[in-house]
Request: fold
Amino acid sequence: MDIGGTLVKLVYFEPKDITAEEEQEEVESLKSIRRYLTSHTAYGKTGIRDVHLELSDLTLWGRKGNLHFIRFPTHELPAFLQMGRDKHFSSLHTTLCATGGGTFKYEDDFRTV
Reply:
């Protein structure tokens, strides 16, 4: 995630080589997030998934999947964080890496998700 002065850019890796066992163990909140992010090209009034930038059948960290690129105005970041709270992102024990000047500005907000 890159939090700039006017735009937030988010990269989402969607694994495509999920085993039946992994799918069974996958928590509902993660399934919900994946369905939401990959089944839309627009999020709210301002969020956009740039389908033309998508990288398919990519291998990262030994996993095969697709990279999705999503962007939205920085002023919408509080709504994104609220969605993270609503969908229980913090229960996933996943690390979110962020860069950009907005990272420092919104650091405390991220810690509450």
